[in-house]
User: Fold this.
Amino acid sequence: MTQAPEKTRPSVERPADAEGPAVGRPVDRVDGTVKTSGEARYAAEFPFPDIAHAAMVHSTITRGRITGIDTAEATAVEGVLAVITHENAPKMVPPGRPTPLDLSSMAPGTRVNYLNTDEVHWNGQPVAVVVAESLEAAHAAARLVRVTYDALPATTDFAAAQADATPVKGNLLEIGEAKKGDAEAALAAAPVSVDATYTTPPQNHNAIEPHATTAVWDGDRLTVHEATQGIEWVRKHLAVRFGVPAANVRVIATYVGGGFGGKGAVWAGTLLAVLAAKATGRPVRMALTREAVYRTVGGRTPTRQRVALGAGRDGQLTALLHEGVSAVGRMGGRSEAVGSQSQHLYAARTVLIRHSTTEMDTVPNTFMRAPGEAVGSFALESAVDELAVELGVDPVQLRTRNEPERSPTDGKRFSRQNLGRVYADGAERFGWAARDPKPRSMRDGRRLIGWGVASAFHMPIQLPADVSVRLAADGTVLVRSSFHEIGVGAATAQAQIAADALGVPVDAVRVEHGDSDQPVGPMAGGSGQTASLAAAVLEACDRIKREALALARKAPGSPLRGRRPAELRATGSGLFRADLPPGAESAGETYAAILTRAGRGYLEARTGSDNRLRAAAGQARFMTRFLLDRRRWVRAAIGAHFCEVAVDEDTGEVRVTRWVGVFDVGRVVNAKTATSQLRGGIVMGIGAALGEETLLDPRTGRIMNPGLGEYHVPVHADVPAIDVTYLDEPDPTAPAGILGIGEVSIVGVAAAVANAVHHATGVRVRDLPVTLDRLL
Amino acid sequence: MRPFAYVSAPDVDTAVRAIAEQPGAKLLGGGTNLVDLMRQDVERPTTVVDISSVPLTGVDELPDGGLRIGALVRNSHLAAHPLVRTRFPVLAQALLSGASGQLRNMATVGGNLLQRTRCLYFVDGAAACNKREPGSGCDAIGGFHRGNAVLGTSEHCVATHPSDMAVALAALDAVVEAQSVRGTRRIPLVELHRLPGDTPHLETVLDADELITAVEVPASAVAATSRYRKVRDRASFAFALVSVAAALDVEDGAVSAVRVALGGVAPKPWRAYEAERVLTGAPATEESFRAAAEAELADASGLPGNDFKIELARRTIVATLRQLRVEGGAA
Ligand SMILES: Cc1cc2nc3c(=O)[nH]c(=O)nc-3n(C[C@H](O)[C@H](O)[C@H](O)COP(=O)(O)OP(=O)(O)OC[C@H]3O[C@@H](n4cnc5c(N)ncnc54)[C@H](O)[C@@H]3O)c2cc1C
Ligand code: SF4
Assistant:
């Protein structure tokens, strides 16, 4: 019973070297070699002969004012170049308020103007920066900076702060309240109901590469090598803060060692590296310690959620209530929209979704993989399981029985509707039919075995993307855009898409990314990067093909003379008639032939524009289209998780022993990287389920486990074989049929584990993480 | 990390002289604990005396069948040693349950015994901690103390000793040999570490200038049937919430010989003498195991965040003894 099924590879996989389209194949990563050989450079690895190193000093009080900073001892350390404090720091323009018109205004992680103020707003806020000839000297001296404070009272206990929560109003991009009918009344009248409170703790991203910046000023021109998921945000934000034109700022992030949302906003390390470079006139590298990441980069905020469900005896949902309180930093951070998936996932006759927030004096929270859904699904999907138990209905059946025709809260249509299918596939792969619903009904020696399920649901966003595509006379292709390779295989995916669009082999395509000198790429967030880029790459490739055809049509000797685009297909590194086999005589010709005849070295197409005004107009146009689109469709990636746990009867230790995840993510560009993304989300979800918790001391708001020794992410031994499959069908409403896959698979994981734990033990754990003491 | 002087000692004499002459000196074994703590500014040695090339790396059989283990034997080497695996399986298991492969390749026997607590407030200079700064208070008591102790604590400190290896050694009646410029002495392992009382900063009976040269494990018939059970928050690479080192011999249904020691619950590797007393001669049954566990934990007292360890320790004692009874020792 604890055996994993034979099939652990994607059912739809085709060999990497198969004939036909590149999209869908498990093509090896184009960046594989440079990463395994160590050639790939990350932000902290760019050498400069006169580089200086910076280290932060963190506040040890929570809120108050600095009354004095004694830097004498630190300054005296050999090799120290400067100790920068609010008393001597160069000025930075304070961050502005975010506006929906310019998304990059959301860049600052916080409103605090570091080292330009004597105010302290959270325990760990940077209050000084030491710059030295060596990293060691910088760190040693940072310990010697003596700061005195006047402390003020602070709010640092989430449980207590909930009393002051206020409703989230909601705006274009964020839900506050959603309502349909009178849900409380329907709940009260329901023949069967559950009504419970769930909590989730603060969590941190823990990307393998800690945040790092290398900043170099040349007059009023600035270059930064940066670990970021949002190059354009960084560029614009630094320009604003340091009072230089955006055109003077170059941001380079060719490779980024993971982000998970933690590198979306601009955090202290980036600003202070640039500030230190300005103050010292030297290139400055700020490579954050893991502790500094915890103290200065926000994580996922804690939540307390109520989910109540009412149903008829047939299991039809009559009421769905999901109310969540989350903490936000007083100096920045956004609400955690825990009810996001609850608006759409199940056909409840009445619905009430409400969010509220309470301010805390902590490092501002930020996006973390599937913000909202990752923790919201824990409450919703646990409650659905509880209802299934109450009803005596199989939890898979209860979910599929409530699959909605249209989105229950707003009547919108779904672009795809496959909840039933992913559950059916998953149930078969997992062997769900053999499940005895009774808790404690399965065991393996002294270990209790349990099976649980939960739904995954995530709506990927779309972002504006500029790319340039250049087709050279030798048949090679260069794609350029300042997007982010944060480890997911983004460049490989675009190479595959361009290869198919132009009919060239994948290895004829080179992709340049991660540099603000390139056309402006989308940020790596909201699971939107790949699809957003694909739309732009396809458009650019179309233009190139039209231009190639225009050249050929006019050429007397060309077999393409007089042909229309619709009659042709791009294949064999050229354009050929679709009605003839590519090898046939006069079927078409190669780009090389077309370009050589026309005397052209290359053809290039650029989507979007670098002209600032037109770029702004383009962004506004894009947003309008995006919002209109959102009004028409619910476009979501979905999935079904099936999980087996073994719980030690003596000690309560929970181990996940088996996992099946079936997803509908639209078209899959690369079978290998997609599978690993989906699997990675499940691994991260297992972390949230069983161990991850940022320990914020309620007395001080200080993080007490700022490191991987005490913050428990899963280790290999915690992760079983994970069977991931997907439907691989294009979404007709999405660019190239692609939905995003970066986040969906973490959604529902914690609930699936907790549901399996309930099945194993009969104990319902409503507070994450599910540690053994909750099961004794 | 603060600047420090570095001395590499080729032999024991040079090392003990160096630490005797430099009051702020610290020995460096594998460095996996010391260097971390120096980075965190908790340890601030003026001189680091590197003993990693001192030739105390033998694992030798004693005439009686026991073992003499050099203080600089690496944890991974010791765990893999055939005599350890066959005669003292509990020790091999304890070692393998600790840290990670990379760390065990570095960690030495001496360093492992003297590694410091993982209390979250001990390693954070912003917190009050009587162990790090005598008289400053104890932030763990009113804060996070999930990993902290329930036995042998005081109102001044509730830290645990984090070693797994030491728990097995406590069960095995190991003896520590220490050398200084004044000579050599032998200390039973169970007496090496002190309870905190009102001086939690004093952790062992060693003087600052003493170097551990070896650990001796006497021959023991019961040790052949032994196990180490470590309960933790993830499957690997986590410190024990509770651990049990146990050895059991049963004759005619009654316990003829037994050793029990606990980890993760006390400021020192905790030899469970009370449990052993209850068990010796008693029927080898679930009831006796439970009674022994109850007796051992009778004086335990927890805090809101680690109270669960008391019941967890009882259950883990019972589970480990039951497994020894049913399945025998670790392979
Ligand atoms: C991430 C992580 C996880 C870990 N998990 C576990 C775990 O699960 N279980 C576990 O048991 N341990 C664990 N450890 C701790 C590890 O076992 C210890 O760090 C290691 O055993 C220390 O040995 P060392 O030789 O590196 O000691 P060092 O760091 O070199 O020294 C530690 C202390 O002992 C002193 N010392 C060293 N040798 C001698 C000597 N011969 N005589 C006198 N004094 C000496 C040093 O001066 C220092 O004070 C973990 C450590 C880390 C970093
Ligand atoms: S328990 Fe001991 S080590 Fe931990 S804070 Fe208190 S005094 Fe310090």
Notes: Chain A touches chain B through 32 residues (CB under 8 Å). Chain A has 17 helices and 30 strands. Chain A has three domains: 1-40+413-460+635-776, 50-153+205-296, 462-630. The domain at 1-40+413-460+635-776 of chain A is CATH 3.30.365.10 (Aldehyde Oxidoreductase; domain 4).
